[in-house]
Amino acid sequence: MYLLTFCCLYSSLMFVYSENPRVTINDxxxxxxxxxxxxxxxxxxxLGIPYAEPPxxxxxxxxxVPMKPxxxxxxxxxxxxxCPQRIFFINSEVMGDENxxxxxxxxxxxxxxxxxxxxxxxxxxxxxxxxGTGRSESYSPGYLLDQExxxxxxxYRLGALGFLSTDDDASPGNYGLKDQALAxxxxxxxxxxxxxxxxxxxxxxxxxGGASAHYHIFSPLSKGLFHRVISQxxxxxxxWAVMPEGRNIKSVIKLAESVGCPTATNMEMVExxxxxxxxxxxxxxxxxxxxxxxxxxxxxxxxxxSQNAFLADSPANLFESKTFNDVPFMTGITKEEGLIxxxxxxxxxxxxxxxxxxxxxxxxLLLWYDxxxxxxxxxxxxxxxxxxxxNSLTIEDFxxxxxxxxxx
Length: 408
Fold this sequence. Notes:
Layout: H1 2-11, E1 22-25, E2 28-31, E3 33-36, E4 42-50, E5 73-75, E6 102-107, E7 118-124, E8 150-154, H2 159-163, H3 175-190, E9 196-206, H4 208-215, E10 228-232, H5 248-258, H6 266-273, H7 278-281, H8 315-320, E11 329-332, H9 339-347, H10 349-357, H11 359-366, H12 375-387, H13 398-407
Parallel strand pairs: 2-5, 7-8, 7-9, 9-10, 10-11
Antiparallel strand pairs: 1-2, 3-4, 4-6, 6-8
Helix pairs in contact: 9-10, 9-13, 10-11, 11-12
């Protein structure tokens, strides 16, 4: 599904900006703009709407705080900044701004008093909980808005800023998921002003966004805020979608040591990390395998018991006990999904050779089974299936290997 990002990026070039619509919501007035969809339909667009206070300073590693009302008219005609991140598969530098909790609304019409409210779709972007954005340039509304719907896209905190957890009150974690829940709450309260029906909200996403959408089924913080879920190429039951037990603190300590923070106590460590430059905290290269791959050092986690926990038990246990939001659910995968991750190895053949030489040691990390009781059995089965009698992996083998481990 990552490939959709690039397709949509180019499609956004077809849009034409026009007159500026205005909407008044609970927080204040917004001035938006207009675009034309793929089929030439003019739609109203409101970009960069803040749904939470900037998660900076004392609010870093804290649950999001709803945005305070503003005075005057807020300019909602320009794309917002992306959250701090590094796009691993193009080996980018770290980019983004910590003040990033914005959402976008795309609607075919501003409602009049007697207008029929339209179904709402809320999209959560993917990117391994490490990178991504809800901006129009990445996920264009140009196809969906030829239909009678209202579309919402959003940013949420990523990497350590979104998912750092010490398994205690110092930093409970799941901030990115809590951002999403607050955005859903914003939709519930405000979407009617854009012609959307708050009683008909479909939550959908791809890859880590698909897993995120699925997570909301299991969270009390999201109860009643959505009515259907579509998970594309990612669910809570993917092995990469949840942090294995005992791994959180190892990642936090490694990060703290890399930026010179003390690790004697969790409270002291987290307080120090609050004062470190945000871009340093999301530079995942200190955790990387082969200097390129994506180990996901910070992910959704089961939180220790608290009133504000997003996820108080494992999804498997919650599913077994029928403790979840019972809504219709659809899921699926895309053929050759592993191509985007495989591009790292296609562009640098020496990495593929290194992987082949160190297959036994590296694949457990790359394919997420290093924490299981018997990794040797899994490794030998993978080696037999993908290598057979060959001595090394080829680039043709790799997409299927990634498909199985990441998306199936």
